[in-house]
Amino acid sequence: MKNIFKYSWALFLLALIISSCQKDDYFVGGELHKPKIDLSTYDFLKNNERGLFDTLIMLVDAAGLKETINQPGITFFAPTDYSINSYIEKRTEIEQRVDPFRKWTVDSILKYETSRFADSLNIYIIPEAISYSDLSGSGDIFQTKKGNDVVLSYEETNDENLGYNPNSSFRPQIMYFTHLLGEINPPFEASQIPTSLGVRTRVQTSGIESTTGRVNVLENGHRLFFFR
User: Fold this and answer.
1) DSSP state letter for 31
2) Does the bond joining 172 to the residue before it have cis omega, within 30 degrees of 0?
3) 3-class DSSP state for residue 180?
4) pLDDT computed for residue 31 by the predictor
5) Which residues contact 119 (CB under 8 A, 6 or more apart)?
6) Which secondary-structure segment (H or E) carries 144?
7) What is the dihedral of CA 62, 124, 177, 225, to 10 degrees?
8) Domain boundaries in the chain?
């Protein structure tokens, strides 16, 4: 009986470990425990153990943007491959309004949109190294390398899915990236910006300090280029 109990307990622990491993480390809490990495921004994305940026790196290579995201002193808000896939699905939906057999793929981006990708990637680059101390809960306006304005905010959350524990006095903070569609004047609250003026995207991992700059990973639900 004792051996059976030990065996059952071992299986429970194994299941718990597997379940924990399946959770996205780029999600809970929003921050890394060890923010400094001994890799460039490009190499950090390329060597991601879960392959979250494989397609992104393919497009970066095709567009010759390695040095762009490796520029010293910048902050890159990296979209994952889920964001690219969401863009592809939306483009396919639009194409099929004309021809139900058309599909948009990564090859389509490589063939028709490499120059657009190279230009539009700049909306994810802030030409300065941004730290948490540069941000507020209400949000601050920054200009991207493309020249458009975005609002970055560092907000407290009481969402248990984002690391909040009601039994703790500590409230985790989450970074948000709001792509502005129109002009906005302070004062404002980032969380209250209407969808007609901005597309609000949670940063699922923030504060990564590479050897070349800063990296923040946008949530998987984001669509590349904020395409609508």
Assistant:
1) B
2) no
3) strand
4) 57
5) 146
6) none
7) -50
8) 26-226
Q: How many CB atoms lie within 10 A of CB 148?
A: 13
Name the pairing type of β-strands 75-78 and 214-218. Answer: parallel
Q: Which 3 state secondary structure label does DSSP give 122? A: helix
The average pLDDT across 136-159 equals 97
Non-local CB neighbours of 140 within 8 Å, separated by 6+ positions:
134, 151, 152, 153
Query: At a CB cut-off of 8 Å and minimum separation 6, what does 10 contact?
Result: none
Q: Among residues 224, 216, 221, 223, which one has the least CA distance to residue 116?
A: 224
Q: Note whether 186 and 160 are within 8 A (CB).
A: no
Chain segment 68-85, per-residue pLDDT in tens: 999 999 999 999 999 999
Distance CA 48, CA 40 (A): 12
Question: Using 50, 70 and 90 to split pLDDT, how confident is the model at 44?
Answer: very high
End-to-end Cα distance, the chain: 61
What is the pTM assigned to this prediction? Answer: 0.85
Q: Is 139 left (phi over 0), alpha (psi -120 to 50) or beta?
A: left
> What is the CA 23 to chain-centroid distance, rounded?
16
- Ramachandran class of 106: left when φ > 0, alpha when ψ lies in -120 to 50, beta otherwise: alpha
CB atoms within 10 A of CB 33: 6
Give pLDDT tens digits for 158-178. 999 888 898 888 899 999 999
Alpha helix positions (H), 121-201: none
Q: How many CB atoms lie within 10 A of CB 81?
A: 21
* Domain covering 26-226, topology: FAS1 domain (2.30.180)
